[in-house]
Predict the 3D structure of the following.
Amino acid sequence: MTALSLQGLELIYTTIERVKETLNPKLNILGILPVMIDKRRKLSNEVKAYIEENFDIHLFESGIRNNVKAAEAPSFGQSVISYAPNSNSAQDYQAFGNEFLSIIK
């Protein structure tokens, strides 16, 4: 995530809060899924910490790492799980799916 991503997150969060106040009080955010994570870069951890400190939103433990296979898959009309099931991104999406299912049950 970058500064622009954080600005977008703030706009989405504000919009959802407005919708919740005026149209749908039952509207809730289940969580934020960090994507394009590069654990070698300090920025990924800084952005995660910023979100945890500034937003009252669950941050999923699963994160989707940056991966060439994830970028290639749409060019072949496939999901990364079909295209490269052993890639980091495919494993990350599967871990997120499991985390998501455990939360909604």
